[in-house]
């Protein structure tokens, strides 16, 4: 909603852009519905990246669901009891002269997104970047 004048429907359309390439990889932990719920969190956050065009999102793999990463997610958000972690990477382009945080006219590859969820909750995007 960082873009002035956008309706909620237009913003949600941008956040869930079907032209983004999605690679679900192979997971024995999460089904497509689980991964789509996490991807929606990423797309909604990315929609606020002014001047950036999302090209791809990839599930990084089940190996990131481990005790060390669960502990890290709980340290990032004290008071929660996260039990699952998912890491994704993305590729995007920053338009010339548009960036505030990112380098203009640059492709960013393998940008990381880390999400976690409690036993009875939905995915929470806890950290992102390189």
Topology as a string of helices (H) and strands (E)? HEHEHEEE
Helix content: 25-40%
Count of discrete alpha- or pi-helical segments spanning 4 or more residues: 3
Gyration radius, in Å:
15 Å
Average pLDDT, rounded to a whole number, is: 89
Based on DSSP secondary structure assignment, what is the total number of beta strands?
Answer: 5
- In angstroms, what separates the terminal alpha carbons? 24 Å
Structure description:
Strands 1-2-3-4-5 form a five-stranded mixed β-sheet. It is 25% helix and 33% strand. β1 (21-23), α2 and β2 (52-59) form a beta-alpha-beta unit. The protein is globular and about 40 Å long. The protein has helices spanning 8-15, 32-46, 67-76, and strands at 21-23, 52-59, 82-94, 106-118, 124-129. It has 130 residues and is an alpha+beta fold. The longest helix is centred in the N-terminal third of the chain and has 15 residues, at 32-46. It has one domain (8-129). The chain contains three helices and five strands; from the N terminus they run αβαβαβββ.
Summarize the structure.
The chain has 130 residues and is an alpha+beta fold.
Identify the notable features of this structure and list them briefly:
single chain; 130 residues; alpha+beta; five-stranded mixed beta sheet; 3 helices; 33% strand
Helix and strand topology:
Blueprint: H1 8-15, E1 21-23, H2 32-46, E2 52-59, H3 67-76, E3 82-94, E4 106-118, E5 124-129
């Amino acid at each position: 909603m960082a873009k002035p004048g956008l309706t909620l429907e237009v913003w949600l359309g941008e956040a869930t852009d079907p032209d983004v390439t999605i690679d679900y990889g192979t997971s024995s932990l999460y089904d497509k519905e689980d991964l789509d719920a996490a991807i929606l969190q990423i797309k909604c956050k990315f929609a606020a990246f002014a001047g950036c065009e999302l090209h791809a999102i990839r599930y990084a793999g089940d190996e990131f669901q481990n005790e060390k990463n669960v502990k890290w997610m709980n340290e990032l958000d004290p008071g929660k009891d996260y039990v699952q972690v998912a890491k994704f990477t993305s590729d995007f382009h920053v338009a010339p002269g548009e960036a505030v945080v990112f380098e203009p006219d640059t492709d960013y590859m393998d940008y990381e997104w880390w999400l976690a969820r409690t036993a009875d909750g939905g995915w929470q995007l806890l950290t992102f970047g390189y």
